[in-house]
Design goal:
Blueprint (H helix, E strand, L loop, with lengths): L2 H9 L14 E2 L18 H5 L2 H16 L2 E5 L5 E2 L14 H15 L1 E9 L6 E7 L4 E5 L5 E7 L2 E2 L8 E5 L5 H4 L1 H19 L4 E6 L6 H17 L9 E6 L3 H4 L1 H16 L16 H4 L2 H21 L9 E5 L9 H13 L5 H7 L5
Helix pairs in contact: 3-4, 3-9, 3-11, 4-11, 6-9
């Protein structure tokens, strides 16, 4: 299915009814999450955020981890795993499911919302069969006069239906998003990265070359500066004749504390993201010992992954995806799988109390073909 097929499919949807409060799509949890749609802009952009190594590392660790954890559906009464529609693990047939959920997790982390557009439904149940992710910057949100209810959405400036084919599936995050609540810190981090890049290109304080003779024409000045810059990149020693003197302006990275400032910002951004500082190699007051290193996955899960995972699984448990008797959850068994020694100790305890058999242990360890 190509781009033009998609356009024809969406245009085939029945005309929308008039917007009113009774038919509103949902509540607006906080106006802070809708800065781009209220006339202002996010305090920071995604590009600025990803230009800061601390955020890029945190984003990749959190979102990639979530994308690698499969989802399953259970019966609420019995707890048994049941068959689930393919849309839950593979929402978009054009790309691997992990890619869709990785970007969805980023949208929730950065903006507080993640959007998918319904491309097909099951004829018998009307539930979603396929949906494609829509980047948040392509979505417009229009509220009522009080700013409390969402009346309709637009994608690329075109209004989309309330329900059915072409409408949006919205995943709600737990706050207004990192780009809003930590925008100033992100921009400070981006400015520090630009400053570091500048000092990498010109590894000395800013310089002024002063002519002691007659005024030079613009083309001669440009050639002189180009030759000076090229020479400084190739050698550390400079030579000036009597007609030119050099003066330094500004401060060195050590004088302005550039490295220290970058470390402070990295720690602050770890707090803003909600990830322990040592996960992104940010300075921390305590060292990571072997004991807490062995529980690193559990720590990452508790502090960073679970809020985003719950936003995804709880939305997929709603009636347009899953029957009311079932729920969707992430299968954490493989993610939290301990070392061989830890698993052996647990198996021994369970075996001794009769809770597990030898064959079941062999099966869980993939020792039975």
């Amino acid at each position: 299915m190509g781009l033009f097929d998609r356009k024809r499919t969406i245009e085939a949807v029945a005309p929308m009814r008039g917007a009113d409060i009774a038919a509103s799509i949902g509540p607006a949890p906080t106006l802070d999450a809708f800065y781009p749609f209220g006339g202002a802009d996010y305090l920071a952009s995604r590009e600025e955020a990803m230009s800061v190594p601390a955020i890029a590392r945190a984003r990749n660790m959190i979102c990639n981890s979530i994308a690698t954890i499969p989802m399953l559906t259970r019966d609420k009464t019995t707890g048994q795993v049941v068959d689930q529609p393919v849309v839950i693990n593979d929402p978009d047939k054009r790309v691997p499911g992990a890619a869709s959920w990785c970007w969805a997790a980023e949208d929730l982390l950065f903006t507080g919302f993640s959007y998918f557009q319904i491309m097909s439904e099951f004829a018998d149940t009307g539930r979603v069969r396929e949906m494609w992710r829509v980047a948040p910057n392509r979505v417009g949100v229009f509220l009522n006069d009080k700013g409390t209810q969402i009346e309709y959405y637009t994608v690329d400036g075109m209004q989309v239906p309330y329900t059915g084919l072409g409408s949006l599936v919205v995943f709600y995050g737990n706050d207004e998003g990192l780009l809003n609540r930590a925008g100033r810190t992100i921009r400070a981090g981006a400015e520090l990265e630009r400053a570091a890049a500048m000092y990498a290109r010109e590894p000395v304080p800013s310089m002024v070359l002063k002519s002691n003779g007659t005024a030079l024409p613009a083309d001669r000045i440009a050639k002189l500066l180009d030759a000076w810059g090229a020479a400084r990149r190739n050698r550390g020693t400079a030579f000036l004749n009597a007609d030119i003197t050099m003066e330094t302006v500004g401060f060195t990275p050590e004088q302005i504390g550039l490295n220290a400032a970058r470390e402070i910002i990295a720690t602050e951004l770890a707090r803003a993201v909600g990830i322990p500082a040592y996960f992104i190699d940010a300075p921390t007051g305590s060292s990571m010992t072997y004991a807490n290193a062995s529980t690193a996955r559990q720590t990452l899960l508790d502090f960073s992954l679970l809020p985003l995972m719950n936003s995804i699984s709880s939305r997929l448990s709603m009636p347009d995806f899953t029957p009311s008797t079932q729920r969707v959850e992430f299968d954490l068994k493989a993610y939290l799988r301990g070392s061989e020694k830890e698993r052996a100790e647990i198996y021994k305890i369970l075996f001794d109390i009769g809770a597990i058999t030898t064959d079941e242990i062999r099966q869980m360890e993939d020792m039975i073909s």
